[in-house]
Amino acid sequence: MKRKNCQSTIAGIWFYGLAGSGKTYASQFLSNRIPHSFVVDGDVVRRHVSVDLGYSEDDRKIQISRIFGIGNIVLENGMFPIMSSVTMTNGLLCACIDQMISVVRIERPFEQLKKVRNLYDGQKNVVGVNLVLPDLNTVSLVNDGTPKFDEALIDYAKSITA
Known about the structure:
17% strand
């Protein structure tokens, strides 16, 4: 099924992965290459919508539900949502599949993550430290901090817009 105003058989993208993995970068990179795209960044949603939430596992589930809701509004307006969050659940993955949203895990070597984000040293409720990032059966892209990541993103975009 093709979306109105979009050449893709996929209706949207959801990037998830640890803080500092490159989700925001990937979202912005692809938004410049996919027509009628609209970025729904989890950090921005947290700043403007989810000001009432903390970082507990339960609050994170509420947060991703809100991101999904905003993504659905984007879809209803004929645009292509590119969403991102730190975590993902199996239930949300199934909901994304039902909406034809491709879910992609962005991975980055932990030593690189620690260099770009200081939250991995002793803070509470950090996914990848004391909260588990679920191992779901999704597409996975590796950000090694080199132009190879850009190439992987371009290849991925071509695969979903063919």
